[in-house]
Amino acid sequence: MRIAELVKPIKPKPPMTLPQARIHGLKQNVERDKQQLQAERDRQRQQRDAERLRKQQQRKTSTL
After folding, report:
1. How far apart are CA 56 and CA 64, in angstroms?
2. Amino acid 10: pLDDT
3. Distance of CA 41 to the CA centre of its chain
4. How would DSSP label each residue in the chain?
5. Whole-angstrom Cα distance, residue 64 to residue 58?
6. pLDDT score of 61
7. pLDDT tens digits, 2-54
8. Residue 57 and residue 49 in contact, taking contact as beta carbons nearer than 8 Å
9. Is the predicted pLDDT of residue 1 greater than 70, yes or no?
10. What is the largest CA-CA distance in the chain?
């Protein structure tokens, strides 16, 4: 078998209508917002962990 027999040709997609483009854009915004929210939560979590670690180290050095 040849590769050409296994691979189906890719057909170009017709341009989106205005309502389809609007829905597509809104879906992309939702995904981007979810990623930004997760990134912000991760940043705040790292900040809390760093502060917690700093306080623990400070307690250890003050007791010595």
Report:
1. 13
2. 81
3. 12
4. --HHHHSPPPPPPPPPPHHHHHHHHHHHHHHHHHHHHHHHHHHHHHHHHHHHHHHHHHHHHHH-
5. 10
6. 85
7. 766 777 778 888 999 999 999 999 999 999 999 999 999 999 999 999 999 99
8. no
9. no
10. 76
